[in-house]
């Protein structure tokens, strides 16, 4: 695939069911955990939220059991019902539940706080360890697409990202425009 342009970067909330004591989540940054092994849910094996929690587990030395679901909705239901302990939930999907007090957002997974939830700290702020994980969007074209077409798509998409309607729609999703050119897309995999 050949890239046209990445669209935006959306953080996750590291959430719990509004019931775990702070020390159970490793919030102190010292890798502390409860007497029992923690569980975390995801929208499925190999998804962004699954791999985000695996990285968090590895980096912070927290032993957790992964419970994969068939989508974000069922995982959030079980998180609210306290059948699982934690989840890296999409900020839009979990946001309503956080605002209603049904979930506690411990932190956001990006290096910067979310514009939608500016009072929720980053994992890096809480622990002092670098952590920057997000979902990102982009537009891809098949390999072999002529450079002229990719350039035209890139130009048109960049132009659309400056319109008020697109900026507003992205902001409502907690998305930050990456502003990258197609040549830079492979770099995003490393950020």
UniProtKB/TrEMBL annotation:
<dbReference type="InterPro" id="IPR005064">
    <property type="entry name" value="BUG"/>
</dbReference>
<feature type="region of interest" description="Disordered">
    <location>
        <begin position="14"/>
        <end position="45"/>
    </location>
</feature>
<feature type="compositionally biased region" description="Polar residues">
    <location>
        <begin position="26"/>
        <end position="45"/>
    </location>
</feature>
<protein>
    <recommendedName>
        <fullName>Tripartite tricarboxylate transporter substrate binding protein</fullName>
    </recommendedName>
</protein>
<dbReference type="Pfam" id="PF03401">
    <property type="entry name" value="TctC"/>
</dbReference>
<dbReference type="InterPro" id="IPR042100">
    <property type="entry name" value="Bug_dom1"/>
</dbReference>
<comment type="similarity">
    <text>Belongs to the UPF0065 (bug) family.</text>
</comment>
